[in-house]
């Protein structure tokens, strides 16, 4: 099959990308399947238009770190954290979180559960492989949600579970990560609720404002797997993109590879044990009328691996709701009119998915 051979595709003038994508998809084994087959060259569907610069010459910036210790019983401490969060979300759109309340053993177990899912027997894993994004399937495992839309195929596989408002029955979840997914989601939901209260206060609103809008009504947990890559400079683990959520809580293993775009440069976010990374998604930027920013980020491919990360999206994009979201009225004024039209989360996510990760923000489509 031409797909396995990097050289044969690169010298063929009549390269048929669609056929290669289909051939790759039909294996139902993802990028891990290619690596397991022993490829030594990255197939052409994964090639970037120009090589990825893996060694940045610029001095590294450091992502803001926020410590939640004492926010529930010390009003002064809480006020400090709200200020720090406001600064981080207005500038970076990202921050790291310590003393977030999720026990370390649960974080470690979650990473292991995702790894165990991908390391199952191939034939067992194939039963979860699907491109049905309608919401009928409780667990979606595939490689590249935007495989047929994106200009570059990413060097990663993903499984996706909607964990709220209607969590799956335990038997609907893959056995290797069944128990921990339920435990971890419960903890993440608790943390997300606290963060959304702090964010509302950072906007000068009532602590319940974002919760009352439904920002914590839906939770999707994505388990990403980035296999080792023979030629990491030729491809990318995840193209630069913004998230289509209200907020995202990310847990990464010790491998590293996440980069955030800030002040015109890419900054590496080194993994720290016990720390989670939080970022604003497009929908938080939309409802705050650009006050909080949903920043571009990407994951580089790596010769050493695999890398595992777990992204928890606070979104109701997969839930059929007619609720229309627009910029929060209390944040608008004559000097700061609405910059976005109202939209449902479903309309937004459908547009985002159809567009694929193409280095542009889906928010532009909803600008007034």
Automatic annotation (TrEMBL):
- The protein in question is named Deacetoxyvindoline 4-hydroxylase
Listed A to Z, the keywords are:
Iron, Metal-binding, Oxidoreductase, Vitamin C
Give, as one word, the top-level EC class: oxidoreductase
What EC numbers are recorded for this enzyme?
1.14.11.20
Q: Which family does it belong to?
A: Belongs to the iron/ascorbate-dependent oxidoreductase family.
Any one Gene Ontology molecular-function term assigned to this protein's record: L-ascorbic acid binding
Signal peptide stretch: none
Pfam families given in the database record: 2OG-FeII_Oxy, DIOX_N
In its UniProt entry, the species of origin is given as: Helianthus annuus (Common sunflower)
